[in-house]
Specification:
heterodimer; A: alpha/beta; Rossmann fold; five-stranded parallel beta sheet; 9 helices; 11 strands; B: mainly alpha; rod-shaped
């Protein structure tokens, strides 16, 4: 999920940024209210984590601005104030959730997942990228109009890549978490140490490359050689790649970024 | 309303506000401390533990500073109360 953290406390802001990155989110952090609105305009985040006591512009004002201009961004408010009236005011102003400090990071993660589930209800079940089309409701994938048979794991893997629409690299840690349901931290640790269990990502990426390359004449490059739909970004992860000479339809019928679901819906441990 | 009660009410409100502010300020380091320890419990390398310990100790220092300032507020408040009680007795 594309997350914007607005927290003026340096230590807490840093911790949240690192913790959510480790959890596979794409995170930006700012420390004041005005910077929050500037970043919201530029990044159009799916979620804003907003502290109330901010310099330059109070969190309540930021919340009101968000409600007026960026309604599609979910806002989770963090507050150190105990008054019930304030929590009610935040919710009435458009906050999707309010969490009181001190809070547990486990609880924050669970609330983010709940918000993500709610957002996913508004998502188009069909993902499109280039000549690829994935109907998640019918569990069907086509490439240039031809059906591609995928196992459950391959389907989940491709879904994780397609949800990022070639705009953002999907790291191995993210794939381990989303597709193979590795717990928090385990994916990152495993990815760093390159243990044998992480080979599973490369193995399945290769399976997908073979299936997607084989079925598509459109996926051949201009020189006539095969173009891989999945590009490896060294040291970073994987990215869906659309060659320039193709008639692209990147996300044409997809929802705007702010309504795109976050977590893999069909993660699985074993193939069908 | 008698003047003493009015003054006492104002004084109490100020104390409540000061305590509320102090509690609010304590929430920041306490949150960071709690989250850092939770994350550390999920990690398995010495480096990650060391990093979590350093962050935790820094937040503990912030908490100690806040506790000290709260003590000062309480000390001042108790002195004010003594004066108010003496004046009320007179």
């Amino acid at each position: 999920m594309n997350v914007l953290i607005v927290e003026d406390d340096a230590a807490l802001g840093h911790f949240l940024e690192q913790g959510l990155k480790l959890d596979g989110h794409d995170v930006t952090a700012v420390t004041d209210g005005e910077a929050a609105l500037e970043s919201a305009a530029k990044l159009r985040p799916e979620l804003m984590i907003l502290d109330l006591g901010l310099p330059r512009m109070d969190g309540i004002e930021v919340l009101a601005e968000m409600q007026e201009h960026y309604r599609s961004t979910s806002v989770l408010v963090l507050t150190g104030r105990a008054e019930m009236e304030e929590r009610v005011k935040c919710l009435r102003l458009g906050a999707d959730d309010v969490v009181m400090k001190p809070f547990s990071f486990h609880e924050l993660r669970a609330r983010l997942q709940a918000l993500s589930r709610r957002r996913s209800q508004f998502e188009d079940p069909v993902l499109r990228f280039g000549d690829l089309e994935m109907d998640r409701a019918r569990r069907r994938v086509t490439q240039a109009g031809r059906e591609v048979e995928l196992t459950a794991t391959e389907f989940s893997l491709l879904e994780s890549l397609m949800r990022r629409r070639g705009e953002r690299v999907c790291s191995r840690a993210e794939l381990l978490r989303e597709v193979w349901r590795m717990p928090l931290g385990a994916g990152a640790i495993a990815a760093r140490t390159s243990r044998m269990d992480t080979n599973i990502v490369e193995v399945y990426i290769n399976y997908l490359r073979k299936k997607l390359g084989r079925n598509s004449t459109a996926s051949r490059g201009a020189s006539g050689g095969r173009h891989s739909v999945i590009r490896t970004v060294r040291g970073e992860g994987y990215l869906l790649d659309a060659p320039e000479d193709r008639n692209l339809n990147i996300g044409a019928c997809n929802p705007p970024p702010e309504l795109t679901a976050i977590f893999a819906l069909g993660g699985c441990a074993a193939d069908a | 309303m008698p003047e003493e009660e009015l003054l006492g009410g104002r004084s109490n409100r100020r104390k409540f506000k000061q305590i509320g502010t102090a509690l609010h300020e304590m929430c920041q380091p306490l949150t960071t401390l709690q989250c850092t320890l939770e994350m550390a419990a999920l990690n398995d390398t010495l480096e990650e533990y060391r990093e979590a310990t350093e962050t935790g100790l820094a937040e503990c220092r912030r908490l100690v500073t806040l506790v000290e300032s709260m003590r000062e507020v309480l000390h001042e408040a108790s002195q004010e109360t003594e004066v108010e009680e003496l004046e009320a007795g007179r």
